[in-house]
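User: Here's a chain of 145 residues. Predict its fold as tokens.
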Amino acid sequence: MSEPSRLVVTRVLPAPIARVFDAWTRSETLARWFTCTPAWDATAESDLRVGGRYRVVMREGARVAGVAYGEYLEVDPPRRLVFTWSSEGNAPVQGSVVTVELEPLGAHTRLTLTHDLDPSSAVGRAHARGWDGTLARLRAWLVDA
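Assistant: Prediction complete.
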């Protein structure tokens, strides 16, 4: 039996590993970059511990454009973060799992994000576009902050 395909996105980010991990795990930093597009704003809550919960609400003006929430399953600073992912919006998902793995590359960090969605499905393609935009926002935030 073959292993199901998963959505995998890899980026090299212009910041040390501790700063990238911090960006993913603190409410105040998540709210600065965790949106699919620069036109959106976000609010975020994060209780960083196994069993703790997070929630990000993305807005385009006064309209809620998307909501993502879930529970932390694994927290291994500064290298690994695993959490459930449920989202509301154009491509709703319930209870999928996202793994963020970080590898230090000197002053940079290689980020590998694995989302247990089939990348060939409509929901997988929508989330691939969303992760591309979100990781571009993370990169821009790391450069500008």
